[in-house]
Amino acid sequence: MRNRSPRRERGEAPAGRRGRRKIAVAAAAGTLAVGAAAIVVPNALAEEDPRGPGETIERIGETIDDALLGIVEIGDIVETAESLTYADETTVLEFSEPDAAYVKVHFERMLLAEDDYVTVSSPDGLESHRYDDSAGEQWATSIAGDTAIVELHRNGLGPVSDTLGAFIDKIAYGFSEDVVDDLIDTRQDRARPAESVCAADDKKPSVCYTDSYPEVVDRADPVARLLIDGTVLCTAFRVGEQNRLLTNHHCFSESWQAERTEVWFGYACTTCGGSERTNPIKVEGQRVLGTSSDLDYTLFSVDDFAAIERFGSLTLSTDDARRGEAIYIPQYPAGRPAEIALKSAVDGGNCVIAKTDYDGYVKGSDIAYYCDTEFGSSGSPVLSRDTHEVLALHHFGGCPNSGVKASLIEREIRHLI
After folding, report:
1. Could you tell me which of 277, 276, 259 has the C-alpha nearest to residue 268?
2. Among 21, 37, 178, which Cα is nearest to 95's?
3. pTM for this structure?
4. What does the buried/exposed string (b/e) look like for 193-212 if buried means 16 or more CB atoms within 10 Å of the residue's CB?
5. Which residues contact 277 (CB under 8 A, 6 or more apart)?
């Protein structure tokens, strides 16, 4: 087994086949060693982004920066040049970084003989993902924790060749929750004073409402955590009974981006106030079926719908929302296990709709509210406490926060769901 930790600082030449190397992602006393690593537009998606460095998006009546869009990187992508070929005696590689929240391997290519396969696993084998087919560049599913084991499994019949095997060109290492929190705090300090958490943070882990609001917790099941291109967070949810999920256009908008997206279902705390978490079901995005920059939505499918069908789905409302209507927002803020914004001190107790006509990318496209959200909450459903239908697709912070009216989105995608 070869150990590789080819971590490098941004701008440094790739580590290649050097020995083990470690560079800390967080320095002492809370100072971030990565500093500017909190880039808000993921590198792999930047070529599709019409904005230049530091450029902002114009919103009706004001300017929106990336802080309001809820995008922040939660890991560091490290270039490497490692392989497991049919000519190598070694069949196992270990990628490790102390304190990493997850490790996600990127294959430049994979060329396999018939019946051979590659696995990416945790050291204890409790999490393992298998890849049977030859393919071009692709992200493997992330492994929770600081170590991922990549193994080439051969049946012995393939030719001895250094052109066959698995070729790895980069690794994503997830930052710890403390580092992510620091990145978010730093980003919020640079943005307008009132961010997506309005006054006190009134969100709670979904499990905390199991006894008091079971019908609300049930509607959190179809809501999924997204990990995009290895380091970017958003939220999505199943809509309709088919293989259809909805998120924001600003999270991703092309099928090739969907293919680089992990979709996690069933990721929650096991007890209210506890740190233990459930093991999520992870599937990959498959294809974008519809998208709109004006209404900031993307409708997409996943590659293994059977694995997540049991989590149920939500329904988009075709009715207009009412001012003062009680609402709630299941979400994955900062990538943490599922939380629900149900209460709001700003609104005097419950989350309610503050404005029924609020300007998003299009005049009057949104509803506004003071329910708390954070980075990673983009793409969450805003649901009615009365009907449990989706009233809006959350996409902006700013206090009030806002979401695109579900009725507008439903008109455009009803033939697809």
Report:
1. 277
2. 21
3. 0.81
4. eebbbbeeebbbbbbbbeee
5. 267, 268, 269, 270, 337
Q: C-alpha dihedral over 245, 247, 251, 256, to 10 degrees?
A: 20
CA distance 296 to 19: 45
Distances, alpha carbon 417 to alpha carbons 25, 128, 244, 264, in Å:
43, 32, 7, 21
Domains identified in the chain and CATH numbers:
2-37+75-174 (2.60.120.290), 194-417 (2.40.10.120)
Top-confidence range, 152-166, 176-190, 334-348, 352-366: 352-366
> How far is it, in rounded angstroms, from Cα 150 to Cα 130?
10
CA neighbor of 314 nearest in space, from 375, 364, 381, 372: 381
Q: How confident is the model at residue 158 (pLDDT cuts 50, 70, 90)?
A: confident
How many Cβ atoms are within 10 Å of 325's Cβ, its own excluded? 18
The span from the CA of 157 to the CA of 341, in Å, is 56
CA Rg value for the chain: 22
pLDDT tens, residue by residue, 55-75? 333 444 344 455 555 566 889
